[in-house]
Amino acid sequence: MSAAPPVTIAALRGARLASGALVDIAIDGDEVLAVVPAGSPLPDTEGETLDLTGYVVTAAGAEPHAHLDKSQSWDAIRPPFGDLERAIESWHAYALTLDEDDTLDRARSTALRMLASGITSVRTHVDLLRGDDALTGVRALVRLRAELEGIMDVELVALGGPTVPDAVFEAALDAGVDLVGGAPHLADDPIADLERLVALARRHDVGLDLHTDESLAGADTLAAYARLVTGWHRPRTAGHCVRLSMMPAADLIALADGIRTADIGVIALPLTNLYLQGWDAEHAVPRGIAPIGRLKAAGVRVAAGADNVRDPFNPVGRCDHLETASLLVSAGHLAPEEAMDAVTVGARDVMGLPVAGPVAGARADLVAVRGDSLGEVVAFASADRVVLHRGRLVSRTSVSTRTAAPATAPSPVPIGK
To answer: How many contiguous H segments (helices) and E segments (strands) does the chain have?
Structure first.
């Protein structure tokens, strides 16, 4: 990847919307000023014009649940393939030797891959580590956020287990972390840890982003989470929620009502949860994805993300919101339009970001992907992409393919011979 200063964009010409309409788009600063039929006059604004003929333009991708501090550590750790418990054990052993500069390098590489794919906003959890220095990862990601200022928005969540003291969470918040996180379903007393994390966030008046119900059976923390934050004014989200996929319809409807009342955004993480769930099943292997289609139908705010990238929790990952969207179609049974919404508009919504997209008055965070329709974009995920963050061109990828000519086809045989 080569570096170049961001370029201010005034207009996009010949782009296709998800609806199929061909349009021209005027941009004024960080805002979409007008969207008109292709070839129509546009208001004059300052900046360059991009020809997006052959591209579909949507709101930029947003990653609502990442772990940049862990990303791309698989090769160094060489962990065993396996479920959540073995992944946690492998990471904790490696984290005792974690280096701040190495963490920054891996996190930067992953973030820039995300940016090239069209993701302009990332919320990443960062572990509060065991050992002498709990904030190694925090310092690395605070540095990364400063490096990427102006081309990508980065939000940090302190991820600590039940043995991490409140003082360590507080030190992370003082160091620049934005939200309180945790995984109370993994604690010996899940509800006690949940109550502690909620109280900590309330005390410091910051939002919450919790891992909840991260297995197909086990502790139910999401219902208690909803009761504890109903009526609160800070953002709150719940990631994973795979236990909900195993619930009978009537029980899910009742839980969804509580989630909606509490205004908790639910984040499905299909790539990592498809990897982590079902290792103990010898046949009829269950697949764990939060049922965000049914939750959305019940009025819950929903989104989807990729979660881990090439670390003990997931050995694969392309840093691409279109990969997540494709999995939501094939494994989550969403329509391509719904899947795309979950990784763009829906993701920004649960992250508390301004509305973005090719709509007048929206933030000019946009991605254009080569393709003739939204369905084709989700299916083929061309790497030919143009990425705008706050009205400025921050990444452009062009792919060139050369294919050998086929052998000469045989001459057709005349009819009747």
So the answer is: 14, 16
Does an H or E element contain 180, and which? strand 179-182
Give the DSSP letter string of 329-371.
HHTT---HHHHHHHHTHHHHHHTTPPPBSSSTTSB--EEEEES
Count of other CB atoms within 10 angstroms of residue 171: 16
Nearest to 266 by CA among 189, 347, 322, 190: 347
> By CB neighbour count within 10 A (0-12 exposed, 13-18 middle, 19+ buried), where does 250 fall?
exposed
- Token pair of 204 as six digits: 């410091």
- Asked if residues 272 and 214 have their Cβ atoms less than 8 Å apart, the reply is no
The C-alpha atoms of residue 29 and residue 8 are separated, in whole angstroms, by 8
Dihedral sign from CA coordinates of 387, 306, 108, 149: positive
| Chain centroid to CA 371 | 22
How far is the CA of 123 from the CAs of 103, 119, 178, 361, 368, in angstroms? Answer: 16, 11, 10, 24, 22
pLDDT in tens, 283-341: 998 888 999 999 999 999 999 999 999 999 999 999 999 999 999 999 999 999 999 99
Cα distance between residue 169 and residue 181, in whole Å: 9
User: The whole model's pTM is what?
Assistant: 0.94
Domains of the chain: 7-59+358-397 (2.30.40.10), 61-350 (3.20.20.140)
Rg of the chain in Å (alpha carbons):
23
Q: Are 25 and 35 in contact (CB under 8 A)?
A: yes
